[in-house]
Amino acid sequence: MLLKGWTEEITRAECRPEAQTVHCIARLEQNIGVAIPYLNAVLGGYIYINEPPSVAFRNQGKLISVHVDHIAINALQDADEARKILLWLQQEINDAWERRAEITPSFKAAPRPQVLQILRLLPKTNCKKCGQPTCMVFATMAAEGGKDAEHCPSLSPEAKKQLTAYLERFPSDG
Predict the structure, then answer these.
(1) Predicted structure pTM score
(2) 26, 66, 118, 158 — which has fewest CB within 10 A?
């Protein structure tokens, strides 16, 4: 077992006291740098940095970044949700490390959907039926994994099919 423990720091953004979410920094008791390329291969990070190694990905609407000595998670409901995600990550990190002989480490970020490509597939009417102020905002959210073709009521069946096919080419955020 590579990652055995951590100390959690749960905070609210000082610049946004009205925020309903909290953030977590978990200070790791072990350096996990050697496992990060394997974790990246398994989870498909959308940002990968070689030196010092770190990977960032989205999971369940959370932005999670894993570094050699800490893990950062944003937009959490509370400390309990942070602990659940940290326990899940501990399992993923340790599993990837234990299976490293079977995994080809990845030193690159996973491909990401392009906002402008998504925008090309949208009706560009800025109708607001999706709950967003513009199609550009919708496209940005779709590129980040927060929206999909089903969230745009103005898409024709053919355009829905095309947008779904385009977005399916990229790893989902789990």
Answers:
(1) 0.69
(2) 158
